[in-house]
Amino acid sequence: MDGKIKVLIVEDDQTLAMSSKMILEQDEAVQVVGIAVGGAQGIKMVERLCPSLVFIGLNLPDDNGLHIVNLLKGHSPAVHLVMYTRYDYIPFLDGLIEAGVSGIISKGASAEQVLRMLHCVMKGDTVLFLPASR
User: Fold this and answer.
1) ∠ CA(61), CA(101), CA(85), 5° rounding?
2) What is the spatial distance between Cα 77 and Cα 83, in angstroms, rounded to a whole number?
3) 59-60 vs 63-64, strand pairing mode
4) Among candidates 107, 127, 129, 115, which has minimal Cα distance to 57?
5) Closest-CA residue to 83 (of 74, 29, 75, 72)
6) 69-90 as b/e, with b when 16 or more CB fall inside 10 Å?
7) Contact 101, 85 (CB under 8 A)
8) 15-49, pLDDT tens digit by residue?
């Protein structure tokens, strides 16, 4: 497993979490090291598993994404963070980017978009894949 991109998924929607795991593991360079259903569990798993990248839900049952991002960056400043959202408008988008989020992706993104997001973020890019406004 050496040299793989270690990914943690923090998402309370288990269908999305499992489908994300399946998509990510299609890439031989990726190892999904765990799935957390809430922010508190996610923070503990980041400390224990030391992932390179965390896909995290914007709204989790125990906290909001911006607060969790700030906590994660405080504990593990080198970790790359990608936010999942179902919204096409995020009022605190600038706050997420300033807090250290490297990517924001729609929960309805294609497998290709998810994998492209992962590789772009790991190269140091900031990427937004949000649904088109209606």
Assistant:
1) 45
2) 16
3) antiparallel
4) 107
5) 72
6) bebbeeebeebbbbbbbeeeeb
7) no
8) 999 999 999 999 999 999 999 999 999 999 999 99
